[in-house]
């Protein structure tokens, strides 16, 4: 809206920002889209195709330590979301463990017992 006011009505940037209660930094900000994001996504696709047991952490450490890329984990994680959206997955697997489906096998979790439950019993 501030850009529209500056372009159409010729008001100053400072006045438009004060009117719409935004900072001039926000007014001038433009995200830098990089081809590196595509490169990260391609790396993640290849790694997850070749190393099915690797989670996000191992993929990130491989790219950082073995391949020598200086990308931080947040940028790589955003690219991981891009990879997931490319694959058409609505929900992402956990970073730590991927759910594995086995034929006729279900895992049962042990019931959690808390101290308050024991106090109620006795």
Architecture overview:
This protein has 122 residues and is mostly helical. It has helices at residues 2-9, 13-20, 24-28, 35-50, 56-66, 73-87, 115-121. The relative contact order is 0.09. α1 (2-9) crosses α2. It contains seven helices and no strands. It is flat. Helices cover 57% and strands 0% of the residues.
List keywords for this structure.
122 residues, mainly alpha, flat
Strand and helix map with partners:
Elements: H1 2-9, H2 13-20, H3 24-28, H4 35-50, H5 56-66, H6 73-87, H7 115-121
Helix pairs in contact: 1-2, 4-6
Task: Offer a concise description of the structure.
This protein is an all-alpha fold and 122 residues long. It has seven helices and no strands. The longest helix is centred in the middle third of the chain and has 16 residues.
Q: Proportion of β residues?
A: under 5%
Principal-axis shape: flat
Structural class: mainly alpha
Number of helices: 7
Order of SSEs, N→C? HHHHHHH
